[in-house]
Structures are given as C-alpha cells and as structure tokens.
Specification:
By secondary structure, this protein is α+β, with helices and mostly antiparallel strands. The protein has 2 domains: 1-171, no CATH class; 179-310, no CATH class. It is 49% helix and 8% strand. It is built from 12 helices and 7 strands. The strands form 2 sheets. A 5-stranded antiparallel sheet has the order 3-4-5-6-7, with no helix packed on it. Strands 1-2 form a two-stranded parallel sheet. A hairpin with a 4-residue loop joins strand 6 and strand 7 (298-301). It is elongated and about 85 Å long. The protein starts with a strand and ends in a 9-residue tail after the last strand. The relative contact order is 0.09.
C-alpha cells in the first residue's frame, strides 16, 4: 500500500509558499536599499545592489520553478496523486504481500513527463501554448541558475514579472497581493508593535512592484484599473501619518474609473469608500474627489488630503 498520499491542497500550499518566498527575497533587497538616505542613492544605484545580490536572484529563480512544478502536481492530484509516481505500475507496493511505502519515498515524475500529465488531466485552468511556453521558460531559467557557473542572465524586472505572472495564471488577479500580505499577517510577531500600522504598511509591496516592473505591467495583475489618476486612501494615510510620519504613496483609484464615479477602491486595504465629486477648496489643488468622515464631521480632498473649507 502507498501511504500518506498527498492532496491537491498540499501541493497548492507549497506553491504559495514558494512564490511568496521568491517574492520576499527580492523585496528584502529593495526594502534594505530604501532605508538609506537619498544622497546615498545618488552614489549607489539600485542596479548595483541587484548585481551584488545575484545569489538572491538565483535562489528566487529556483523557488519560482519549484512553485510552478508544485502547482502542476496539485492539478494532477485532483485526478489522482498516483499519476505522479515514476515507477512502473508492476513495481508499485500495492499487493497484499508487499511492504507499505510512504509516497514521499517514491520517485515522482518531473520535467516533460510532469508537463504532459498536467496537460492530460481535467483542469479549470486554460492550458494553452502561452502557459506551456511560460512553464518551459521557468524551467530553463532554473537550469541556468543551478548548473550555470557564470552570473545568470535573468534580470530582477523579468523575474518579478514572472513571479506575478505565476500568481495570476494559477490563482487569478489580485491574488499575489493577498497571499503576500497574508504571509505577513500570519507572522507570530505581527501586531506586537501596532496592529493597524503593521497592517497598513503593506503598501510597500505595491511600491516595490511598481518600482521594478512599472504600473502598466502591474495593471494586468489587478481587477481595479490602476492606470488612472491616483488618490490617497482615507484610512491607510490617516493610520500611517499618525504613526510613521507621512504616507506619500497613493494606491486608491476611482471604481469604476468614470468622470462621475462616487466610489474609490484602495488596493492596499481592499476598502471601498464613498466620495463626492466637488472641487477642492485648496487653491493649488485641482482635485475633485472629496471624502467625508462622518465620525469627525469634516471633508478632505483625496488628492492633496487637505481639509475642505466650508
């Protein structure tokens, strides 16, 4: 008998873990660099930092490949985990007289056999040439990372884009941010400093992605259109400004993005907030998206975040 057979959920969990760690390795490099003053940034460019952290890029590439293989295994497990076993069926330890074996002790398929089996089983995913080419690209990059003696050719821009593409291919739009932030929320140390503050600073993940791949590429990974005009979130900015000094990042957008829209959606906190469309009373601001805070009875502009004069 083959014992401890894995489930779809087991491999899906590994997929998310590997994608999250592949992302976080790159994010930590960026985050550490951002802690230095701007005058130091003028002397040392981000490109120099990435070149110094080529080993981190290599490790992230390997984790991405592991995530892709784990996802294919999760899809195959929906049909049967036995399809993952490499052994000839005649050699399976399934007959009554044979000794039980743990699934993890058996050789499992990989490479072309894994892809072929993945394409053969029933799946809710649209499996087309584009996806298979993506999987093959990840495999080749992984091989270069492991077997290549020289520096790998893949750049952090391409690697991060591939990580986000994997999240979106496998789990859908917005899921990359959900899983990355959930990892932060599940940290046993989360909340010991300040729950609201620690929850709000997840906008740094959004800043990081925009900095590396740009807003246009980033847009395809979100349901909300993030190409349009940006606004402050009435909750996130208030929380950060109270604890951190000042939040300059704007991750709130009209939803839907129309001239008369009276709703905004914040990517960071996933909140939807009612707004009124009237001109800001601050002379230097051309904003016309105004938030009204009922608890404190004042209006403020989500473009400049200034309180509105009566």
């Amino acid at each position: 008998m083959i014992t401890n057979q894995p489930t779809e959920e087991d491999f899906e969990r590994v997929t998310i873990e590997c994608l999250t760690q592949a992302f976080n390795l790159l994010f930590k490099v960026y985050q550490n660099y951002q802690e230095y003053d701007e005058d130091i940034h003028e002397d040392v460019e981000m490109g120099d930092i990435w070149n110094h952290n080529v080993g981190t890029i290599r490790t992230s590439t390997i984790l991405l490949h592991q995530a892709v293989e784990s996802f294919m295994k999760s899809v195959i497990c929906r049909t049967s985990p036995l399809l993952l076993i490499e052994k000839n069926r005649a050699d399976w330890p399934t007959l009554p007289m044979k000794t039980n074996k743990d699934f993890d002790s058996l050789y499992t398929i990989s490479g072309e056999s894994l892809v072929a089996t993945f394409c053969a089983v029933e799946s809710e995913l649209i499996i087309d040439n584009k996806l298979i080419e993506f999987i093959e690209k990840i495999r080749q990059n992984r091989n270069k990372s492991i077997h290549g003696a020289s520096n790998i050719e893949i750049k952090p821009t391409e690697l991060l884009d591939d990580i986000l593409n994997a999240f979106t291919y496998f789990f859908g739009r917005d899921k990359w941010f959900l899983h990355i932030t959930n990892f932060n929320l599940k940290n046993p140390l989360f909340g010991y400093y300040d729950w609201e503050f620690e929850d709000a600073i997840t906008y740094e993940f959004l800043d990081f992605v925009e900095s590396v791949i740009g807003r246009k590429k980033m847009n395809k990974h979100h349901e909300t259109n993030i190409i349009g005009r940006r606004y402050h979130c009435p909750i996130c900015k208030d929380t950060i400004d109270a604890e951190y000094g000042e939040m300059n990042s704007k991750w709130t957008f009209l939803h839907p993005n129309t001239p008369n829209s009276e709703n905004v959606h914040c990517l960071n906190c996933d909140g939807n907030y009612k707004v009124t469309r009237e001109n800001c009373t601050t002379e230097s601001c051309k904003g016309n998206v105004i938030s009204f805070e009922e608890e404190v009875r004042y209006k403020f502009c989500l473009s400049c975040f200034q309180e509105q004069k009566e």
